[in-house]
Amino acid sequence: MIEDKNQQRTPLSGFGEFGLIDHLTKNFKINQSSTIKGIGDDAAVLNFENKKIVITTDLLVEGVHFDLSYMPLKHLGYKAVVVNLSDVYAMNAKATQITVSIAVSNRFPVEALEDIYAGIETAAKIYDIDVIGGDTTSSTTGLLISITAIGEVEDEVYRNGAKPKDLLVVTGDLGAAFMGLQVLEREKEVYKVNPNSQPDLEPYTYIIERQLKPEARKDIIKLLKDLDVKPTSMIDISDGLSSEIIHLCKQSNVGCDLYEDKIPLDPQVISTCEEFNIDSTTVALNGGEDYELLFTISQSDFPKIQANPNFSVIGYMKEANEGMHLVTRADSKIPIKAQGWKNFND
Amino acid sequence: MIEDKNQQRTPLSGFGEFGLIDHLTKNFKINQSSTIKGIGDDAAVLNFENKKIVITTDLLVEGVHFDLSYMPLKHLGYKAVVVNLSDVYAMNAKATQITVSIAVSNRFPVEALEDIYAGIETAAKIYDIDVIGGDTTSSTTGLLISITAIGEVEDEVYRNGAKPKDLLVVTGDLGAAFMGLQVLEREKEVYKVNPNSQPDLEPYTYIIERQLKPEARKDIIKLLKDLDVKPTSMIDISDGLSSEIIHLCKQSNVGCDLYEDKIPLDPQVISTCEEFNIDSTTVALNGGEDYELLFTISQSDFPKIQANPNFSVIGYMKEANEGMHLVTRADSKIPIKAQGWKNFND
Prior knowledge:
In chain A, 32% of the residues lie in helices and 24% in strands. With 346 residues, chain A is an alpha+beta fold. The first copy, chain A, folds into two domains: 12-153, CATH 3.30.1330.10; 167-335, PurM-like C-terminal domain (Phosphoribosyl-aminoimidazole Synthetase, Chain A, domain 2, Alpha-Beta Complex). In chain A, the strands form three sheets. In chain A, strands 8-10-7-11-9-12-13 form a seven-stranded mixed β-sheet, with helices on both faces. A four-stranded mixed β-sheet of chain A has the order 3-6-4-5. A two-stranded antiparallel sheet of chain A has the order 1-2. In chain A, a hairpin with a 6-residue loop joins strand 1 and strand 2. The first copy, chain A, starts with 16 loop residues before the first helix and ends in an 11-residue tail after the last strand. The relative contact order of chain A is 0.15. At the A-B interface, strand 2, strand 3, strand 4, strand 5 and strand 6 of A face strand 2, strand 3, strand 4, strand 5 and strand 6 of B. Chains A, B: It catalyses: thiamine phosphate + ATP = thiamine diphosphate + ADP. Chains A, B: Mg(2+) 4 binds at residues 42, 56, 87. Chains A, B: InterPro entries: PurM-like_C_sf, PurM-like_N, PurM-like_N_sf, ThiL-like.
């Protein structure tokens, strides 16, 4: 929302495709021993010796997944990496490499791509992954980022291993990214009416950061290993808790009781929900973009995680024919329905 | 250019994201022993045991890389796979898996996506690869396909291994895809003026097929192995012969003499070039999209490939300080310059 009148604008047409990729990736370092050859040939070459690998890909589209009027480009680059790594961690794997493809219209100067790549580079450093390839091309409109993430895994965890009586556990807290988005959307509307208004975003710092610069739970994979806990099933929360619970239940052929009073909420989420007059449970269930991990463990593993503030036990798994329910604070049972983002709706 | 008034149009909004991916990929089979888990979890799981892997990614954008007014969607799906596999083969690797991400606007019905996936499925069958993941999302405009291809390799060939005195070899023939595009562009203009005109495309079948449904040279990788030839360097021809020669020379730190009279051209390319009054050598050098393999071999390997109609020796490598030149039919020497597609030009 803040316009910098002095920003430099170098047109993309000043670079050939190869010159541009070289320019954007020249600072990128290779740290993973599994990367034999990164950017610069027809393909990257990797050697995982006798480890299995995981691979996942995600597409972020301007106007659908992000709005550049409040998403700084550096944050966008960072977030694009993080949402992919989150899928790698959800397999109980270690993320090792990514490829990055960007389609961008000529309305963006080279400096815009530099900002996106700066965010990508920061994420690569923090999560210790190598950027090993990609493609940069023009688009007729808008900006689109496609990232593929690769990881190595010894003991992968699928969505389909949950058993009745397993405990349902979630990391961190939920609903913050969604409420951060509500605040940003509101400020955008205010800005349209009065471009000179100075928003006070201080009460929303945590939820806005969760929206603009989410983190993937690399730490949890290490923690689970240290605690000697192997989840029976796992998924990351990108579309919202209810949608992910349904995935785990359907693929594992189990049911679930989810306890409303156990869902972890940050105080900022609760106060902002009150301000916006939105039900915080609905936000936690359907908001999405939390990038927390949702997993099931055998009850015998409960003592290992019980005292750890990273984990909340929010429900337990039942027989499939018992269905999937939210047990409310008033002790009534409501069927869980997916209401995650439906990007194809008109 | 032919409109089917009776075609079925199911809106994309009729499916949730997950339902849509399930619907589009339900027929896809897993054939590769390295695929442990394909579509359906947070990530695919692969096991190459102790083989190295190669990975490459490409982005195809409507209005930049393809024009739907003459590119049938099935062909587009097929071509999107092939251009990625070509990069895998250019590493001397065996292609094994792909992920497919598609961004598409609501103006496309589900049947359009089904056509694209039908092309992808056909390519996957013919090249014996597994489709192991992907993402399908909406875009604000247009169609975009991002594919990542994975392969396994024992003895990879890079771009940087060419030595002075090595022979420069190309597979197949060059320039056909570019001339096919010229014919299609011309027909599009004719159609705009007179939608009832019936074009006679019979004289152009080969070059149009090379544009709309190119093939990657999987067969060459097997052939080279059978002939016991390991190229010293290799690249695939996507941007044009001159641009690829420059890549090999720069990365190998060598020079090159390319002989104009040795460049393989199909008779249809020659006759169409005459019709369009374009120089066929320029087309071969700068046309691109041939997806043939360009490689260098040690002179001692020459007898092994000499009699094989798949290969044309088109030049030989020199010391870097001797530069890169086209030796014309008139025996003059012209420096080789890259004039490949520059997608960022205004």
